[in-house]
Specification:
The protein has 2 domains: about 160 residues, Aspartate Aminotransferase, domain 1 (Alpha-Beta Complex), CATH 3.90.1150; about 270 residues, Type I PLP-dependent aspartate aminotransferase-like (Major domain) (Aspartate Aminotransferase, domain 2), CATH 3.40.640.10. It has 14 helices and 16 strands. The strands form 4 sheets. Strands 4-12-11-10-7-5-6 form a 7-stranded mixed β-sheet, sandwiched between helices. A hairpin with a 2-residue loop joins strand 13 and strand 14. Helix 12 packs parallel to helix 14 and helix 13 packs across helix 14. The longest helix is centred in the N-terminal third of the chain and has 19 residues. The protein binds pyridoxal-5'-phosphate. Pyridoxal-5'-phosphate binds next to helix 5.
């Protein structure tokens, strides 16, 4: 057995991958290195293949791989210290990053909690909202959200993730029951007075009214629902949900783990809706895909409420790897690069290229929708994607995609050049055409 065969066999037999089965072998590709927008795959015959990463490693690697500025920041920090506990100690990377996040986000967001993953940041956001209730003597313990969302895989985030896509049925009796409004009408540009929007608002308002007395917070991904189905909704729908919370004394939590740092065209999606949440979750692209780090920002009002004696006197959370210095240092360098590279121009260029490049998918028999928003390009089929086949067909054209459900999509690195972006689009369209027709 060759070296690669042995590695992959052990991997299949012993190593869990995301949403993987220990019984069914799925195709797995070994990556030896990555540079620019390309992953270097190792093949069984000893050859290697450079493929364009159309996924940005699950939307994180916005500047691509082996980025000199990020490498340098990591090396510099490594020479100082790679980690130190955050209880009772502090350090410049965390302070500087907190300062930057406070300055980049809307003014009222003044306090930063560093978590070690997006899911944990949503846990913390939900915990903040609930602790605040304890402090005010309120008995509200439920969250209000929309269907089709995704907030992570630990239990609290899972409980506000779409009940069907989130597999609530597997955990019924354990997951808290929260309140789910319908998915808003599809499209960023749906007019506020569109009949579908009017009907959605009416239904959502009446559902909210029935639960207002028990809702502690509204939580949602503004404008773009990511892993829940790559759906876009209008800023107006975001405003409706936020205003419901405000009218009824609940908090607003925005999960911008996917949309943060420019992916939809603005630095944060909340800018489109012109809503300032009470609590904001950031993650994924925060470190440019180098290390795992997330952040929860909240208003001074929330921070004071959570810290009041009645609420327990402190925010009761503290991950071992909280504010990891290495991750914070790289995040700062990534934010510098975002500005230096003019992310808004980069993402606008991606949007134009994706719109042109994916247009051909519209003509395919199997395709029901093609949509683009910022650096997100989605081809939706009328049936579940035969993912292994589509992946293989795209790889044969030099592109890595990871379809799910009925979706073949791309979120390329912002630095993707025009010809590489065209290759991504052509590969997606051809792979869908080959496999599904
Ligand atoms: C990915 C994601 C999460 C979970 O983040 P992890 O780092 O995978 O735990 C939560 N919310 C949204 C919107 C995400 O896209």
């Amino acid at each position: 057995m060759g070296d690669l065969d042995r590695l992959l066999a052990f991997d299949q037999d012993h190593v869990w991958h995301p949403y993987s089965s220990a019984l069914v072998h799925d195709p797995r590709f070994l990556v030896d290195s990555a540079s620019g927008v390309r992953l270097r795959l190792r093949h069984a015959d000893g050859s290697s293949q450079d493929v364009i990463d159309a996924m940005s490693s699950w939307w994180c690697a916005i500047h691509g791989y082996a980025v000199p500025e990020l490498d340098a920041a990591a090396h510099r920090q490594l020479d100082q210290m790679s980690h130190v506990m955050f209880g009772g100690l502090t350090h410049e990377p965390a302070i500087a990053l907190a300062e930057r996040l406070v300055s980049l986000t809307p003014d009222p967001l003044q306090h930063v909690f560093f978590a070690d993953s997006g899911s944990v940041s949503v846990e913390v956001a939900m915990k903040m909202a609930l602790q605040l209730q304890v402090g005010t003597g309120s008995t509200r313990t439920r969250f209000f959200t929309i269907r089709g969302g995704y907030h992570g895989d630990t239990f609290s985030p899972m409980s506000v993730t779409d009940p069907v896509g989130g597999m609530h049925s597997l955990f019924s009796g354990i997951l808290p029951q929260h309140v789910f409004a319908p998915v808003p009408p599809a499209g960023v540009d749906v007019p506020d007075d569109d009949p579908a929007m009017v009907a959605w608002e009416r239904e959502t308002r009446s559902l909210y009214a029935a639960h207002a007395h028990e809702v502690a917070a509204v939580i949602l991904e503004p404008v773009l629902q990511g892993a829940g189905g790559m759906r876009f909704h209008s800023p107006y729908a975001v405003r409706v949900l936020a205003s419901l919370a405000r009218e009824h004394g609940a908090l607003v939590i925005f999960d911008e783990i996917a949309t943060g740092f420019g992916r939809t065209g603005t630095l944060f999606a909340l800018e489109r809706a012109e809503v300032v949440p009470d609590i904001l979750c950031l993650g994924k692209a925060l470190t440019g895909g180098y290390l795992t780090l997330a952040a929860v920002l909240c208003t001074s009002e929330v921070a004071r409420g959570v810290s009041s004696q009645a609420a327990g006197g402190a925010l009761m959370h503290g991950p071992t790897f909280m504010a990891n210095p290495l991750a914070c240092a790289v995040a700062l360098a990534s934010l510098d690069l975002l500005r230096a590279n003019d992310f808004a121009r980069q993402v606008a260029t991606l949007e134009a290229g994706l719109t042109t490049g994916l247009a051909a998918a519209d003509g395919l028999e199997s395709v029901v929708d093609v949509r683009v928003l910022g650096g997100v390009g989605v081809v939706q089929l009328g049936e579940p994607v035969r993912a292994a086949e589509v992946t293989a067909a795209a790889l044969a054209r030099g592109v890595w995609v990871r379809p799910f459900r009925d979706l073949v999509y791309t979120m390329p690195p912002y630095v993707t050049a025009a010809d590489d972006l065209a290759t991504i689009c052509d590969a997606m369209v051809a792979a869908v055409a080959d496999v599904h027709g």
